[in-house]
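Run log, item B.
One chain of 323 residues. Sequence copied directly from the ordering sheet:
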Amino acid sequence: MKNIAVIMGGFTSEYGISMISGSVVMKHLDPKKYHPYKIIITQDSWYHEDENMEKYEVNKSDFSIEINNTKITFDCVFNAIHGSPGEDGLMQAYFKLIGLPQTACDFYQSALTYNKRDLLSVLKPYGILSAASYYLNKGDQINTKAIVKKVGLPCFVKANKSGSSFGISKVHKEEELPRAIESSFKEDDEIIIESHLDGIEVSIGVITYNGETKVLPATEITTENDFFDYAAKYEGKSHEITPARISDTQLKNLRATAKKIYEVLKLKGFSRSEFIFQGDEPYLLEVNTTPGMTSESLLPMQAREEGISLNQLFSSAIENALH
């Protein structure tokens, strides 16, 4: 029986979603193989919380806990933190330093994919297509005319390092830009403003499964809202259709592009990439390396379509990390 630390929580607006994802992982780990421990990571403390809501502080020198004078160490960490510090490389670097296997990709890849601007820049020479974009850092002078000239209208204003559609706005008029920029700066000190791509939006998971790179079925995303925002993702204001209703050519191009990104970046564990089609070509929006595991989340839905249960999905992630 292996001790598995399921880390959840984090430092960002995605805390609540991470707690749900972590609970799903806890529930579906194989009880014959793994003893899961709920570990909550916050800015103030790292602690294990048992079923009676008792809290036990984590010893950060070796990521152990002590219960009833017995020291408990872990064989592997299952990373269910969305946002910082679980998706931006901080936890990955820490676990690398103390020699503890964990299910997410390595620290450099985590930091790179978490930074939308850097990710798109790195992938461009490999032929990965993306929208026209404009960058802003906090304190920069805001020239709305230059922004509109570069990306056009409508456009999307996004926090550069954020997830779950926090800090993102769709802007239809130039005079709406300052408020949208201010909103994004509440989430991050860097912004990416992208041109609006009008086309089919899809999400596709690529994972390491039983030691092999596996591309999962694609999901088509349609929403009642103006775009795939937080409400669309988590409050039922969208329709996710798996498999996506796209042509054979589109599917072939999408699968090849998603796999290429995974292998070029040397990712491992779970990933989920978002694209919008322009004709038959997929344009990359972002890559998530600790995608949601809630009942509404896309990657578990895609795995289910492929015939992979949550039990199998999570077991494979742990065994791959251990080996």
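Observations after the first pass:
- The domain at 112-129+198-322 is CATH 3.30.470.20 (D-amino Acid Aminotransferase; Chain A, domain 1).
- The chain has three domains: 2-103, 112-129+198-322, 133-195.
Flagged for discussion on Thursday.
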